[in-house]
Each structure stands twice: as structure tokens, then as C-alpha cells.
Amino acid sequence: MSPHLSRAGAWFLRSGIQEANGGVARYYRTDVERNLAVSTEITGYAASALFWLHSVSGDARYRECALAAARYLASTAWDAAAQAMPFELDPPEFTYFFDCGIIVRALLAAWRASGSGEFLSAAAALGRAMARDFASHDGDYHPVLALPEKAPAERDALRWSRSSGCYQLKAAMAWWELAEATGDAAFRAPYESVLAFSLRTYGSFLPGHPDRLKVMDRLHAFLYFLEGMLPRAADPRCGAAICDGIRRAAQHLHEIAPDFARSDVYAQLLRMRLFADRAGVAPLDRDAAAQEAADLAAFQAVSDDPRIDGGFYFGRAGGRWLPYANPVSTAFAMQALAMWQDARPAHVELI
User: Fold this and answer.
1) How far apart are the C-alpha atoms of 47 and 115, rounded to whole Å?
2) 347 and 15 in contact (C-beta within 8 Å)?
3) Residue 210 exposure: Cα atoms within 13 Å on the Cβ side
4) Does residue 347 lie in a domain region?
5) Mean pLDDT, to the nearest integer, of 22-49?
């Protein structure tokens, strides 16, 4: 593995970001030297990242940690009686549509890696709950439900995570993957519904906020939309939207980055360039990709403290790193840089 990848993998193993019960903290605060609470979404992302690390390294430690994260999701976090996956367990106040999709994909990764029906059953149950509980009367999907009653939380148009939108397509990929894993074609219909909605509405998602620095946050979500089209990249509508989306995302990123930049946005954009090139959708702009890879690599922390070293900082503002060593930023960044450094057009499972 490359030095970037080895150091990022070591951060997942030794930083303490994953707790003994398998759950993974939202991030590590470098300024106050503590982890935030465990998040089910972040645990899902970490599980997928760790399974991917095992696939490229063969190191059994990554598989063990990934399975621990998956067991936390399937056994500890999943409320089988209520058929709900809380955002956090202490207390379990809300469940997010987007988070559920990320967790389904992690459980499916665990099933593929282990063959355990426990993970497939949990993934399918959560996938059905997503389709049943989050569906709105307007034909879209509520972003957040309050627990235990599963009542839709109030939406906020200026907060993408509190709105329905094209970004939800990445979560809807869970249904696409469930259809393949279970053989149940009924899971395809809700994915296609979210895809159609996203293609109709994505044009108004950016900039989407009067504060230009908030647009950087919306870029993160917009790139989820592009990722969510990868199963249908061969569709001319999706191919055109991917090309348009890469262009628009790059323009906004490079305009805002001198004031505020997120490492995950660099990583997501670089991954999309590489996936689109491999799918034959958009030829790779090598100069732009090379610059984005170099900018992204600079976010990797160098420290004598194992809680920080090798992880990727969430962002940079005013020329200073923001004090968050972030598991999702690290997962996206290490995969993007590994793809960039590997010239072989091999299949890569999107984290």
C-alpha cells in the first residue's frame, strides 16, 4: 500500500476512533482531545472503509474491526422491535433516511465478506423500513424522523441534511444493492423513484445557500448525488448529469477553497472523475485531477499523537486546519488517493 493509505489505515486501527463495542465516533476533537459520541452512520462508513482496506491489503485486522462495526450496527444499534436505526443511541431521538442507506450498504459489505445471514437479514429489514417509514405523501422521502413515533421532523430548506433532495440518491443505492443481494426486484423501484426525482431537481441544488461558505457543505451533498448515479452511469441521462455535475462541483470548489475547503469534497470530486473515466462517461482531466489529489493529500495529519497521525482533517478555513480528525474524510480521502495512484482500471467498491 502507498504511504498515504498505510498511515490512514493505521489511524483507523490505533487512534481509538473505534470503541471496544465496535461503534465509531463521529470524529476526534484535536483541540479538546476527545471523541464525540458514536454515530451509526459513521460506524457504517467505517465498516465499509475497513472492508475495503482488507480487500486491498489482505491485513486481517481490518476485517476484524469491520466485522465488529457491522455487529454493532446489526445487534446493538438496530432496534428490531421498532424496526428503526437511531442516529445515536444515547438517546435514540432521531433516525435519518441518508444514514440508513449508508448502514444498509455497510451491512451488505459485511454479508459479502463473511457470508453471515445475520447481516443480510438486518440490511433487508432496514431497507424495507426506509421505503415504508420515510415515504412522504408528496412522493419524496422525509430526511429525518423523530423516534419512537417515527413522525417526520420539521424540514429546513437551508440545511441540506434536513431537506429532501438529490443527495439522497446515494442512500437509495442501498435498494439497488439489496435487489442484487436478495434477488428481490421490488427493491429497484424506490431507487428508480429517487433517481427520477434527483434528475428533475438537481439543477437547483447549487449554490442553494446565500452564504458562500455554506455552499462548500452543499458540495459534499451534491457529490453524493453524483455517486448515487454510478449504478446507472451507462444511462445517457445519468452520464450527462455526471459530466455536468463534475464541472459544476469543480467550479464551486475552486472558487471557495481559498476561504474554506473540506477534504471530503476534494476526495469525492477526485473519485467521481476517476469513476466517470472508468465508466466511459467523461474522459479524465488529468491536470485537474492531479491538482485535486495534491490538495487532498495535504489534509492528512502528521503528528506524534496516534489519535491524530494518519487521519485526515475535516477542513481548512482561514489557512488553519479545523480541529476534527474525521473518519469519513479519512475513508473518502484514502480511497480517492489510492485510485489516483493505481493506474489499473480495476473495479473499486465505492465507500
Assistant:
1) 15
2) no
3) 1
4) no
5) 98
What pLDDT does residue 344 have? 55
3-class SS of residue 316: strand
Q: Coil, strand or helix: which one is 79?
A: strand
Specify the number of domains making up the chain. 1
The whole-angstrom separation of Cα 329 and Cα 320 is 17
Query: In this predicted model, what pLDDT tens digit does every residue of 146-188 receive, in sequence order?
Result: 999 999 999 999 999 999 999 999 999 999 999 999 999 999 9
Residues spanned by the domain of 55: 3-341
175 three-class SS: helix
Q: Which domain CATH number covers 240?
A: 1.50.10.10
Name the grid cell of 237: 441521462
In a domain, 19, yes or no: yes
List the end-to-end C-alpha distance of the chain, in Å, as a whole number.
18
d(CA 142, CA 334): 32
pLDDT (tens digit, 9 = 90+) per residue, 231-245?
A: 999 999 999 999 999
Q: Tell me whether residue 328 is in a domain.
A: yes
Contacts of 314 (CB under 8 A, 6+ apart): 27, 262, 263, 264, 322, 324, 325, 326, 329
The answer as to whether 346 is a domain residue is: no
Q: Using one digit for the tens of pLDDT, what is the confidence trace for 292-350?
A: 999 999 999 999 999 999 999 999 999 999 999 999 999 999 999 999 998 555 568 89
